[in-house]
Amino acid sequence: MKLFRFQTPSGPHLGLEQQGGRRVDLTVAAPDAFGSLGAWLAAPDPIGAVLAVGPRASTLVPDEVEPLAPVDEQEVWAAGVTYERSRVARREESPTGGDFYDRIYEADRPELFFKALAHRVVGSGGAIRVRADSKWNVPEPELALVLTPSGRIVGYTIGNDVSSRSIEGENPLYLPQAKVYDGACALGPAIVLAQPGGIDPRALAIRLRIRRDGGEAFLGETSTARMRRSPEDLASWLVRELSFTRGAVLLTGTGIVPPESFSLQRGDVVEITIDGIGTLVNTVA
What we know:
Number of domains: 2
CATH topology of the largest domain: Fumarylacetoacetate hydrolase, domain 2
Largest sheet: 11 strands, mixed
Order of helices and strands: EEEHHHEEHHEEEEEEEHHEEEHEEE
Structural class: alpha+beta
Number of strands: 18
Strand content: 35-45%
Helix content: 10-25%
CATH architecture of the largest domain: Alpha-Beta Complex
Distance between the termini: 32 Å
CATH class of the largest domain: Alpha Beta
Shape: globular
Low-confidence stretches: none
């Protein structure tokens, strides 16, 4: 089952895509429990609430509604250097700081950094951006964890941690400027609930396709099986000394890094597909 946000004349609503593709409005069925994503995540048992309300929700969601990013009151954080490919790429972009990334990859403590507030996140179909003061810009396709205030993983979605590799490569301390700016984060299209018998977050194929001028500019593929750290471990570190009263979203790192010869350009279409979740599609503005 997939939870999704969409726009209505009265404001954002939460919907549920059930088995067989039937889509129902959870906000209409239970406005207190599903008035916002934050309200749902703050509930004692978010998944139990969906299982209780979903079968009795009767208001159907039409196909032509405006989709929204699956985030409203949450901060988005990210983990770095969780794949071997990412470690190698960081060495390439920052020859003088490569040792830092080797140490991060091997350490018990992961690299975690703030990525975006909800108002800076775009959904599938929205426009991402690259910095005007950067020469080398890439998408970073990632599995994203949807967390309760306690750090429990209740869902998974797709994230694009758009990054300026030229700025980060100048100095590791420039990471916030390389990662945090308007249009640098996309999430969607929906949240797949973390249920027994559902998708396995440690065995998901991730594919990246970038289209340019009617052709394919880049193709890449990896698997979450190549992640050094488990989703649960990353989530536990995030909530160790931080409170998220309305939940949080945590990107888990990328295993697909385009070469230095490639940089995003205006008009590029970035498609990130994760098996069992869907495809996140964004155009570079």
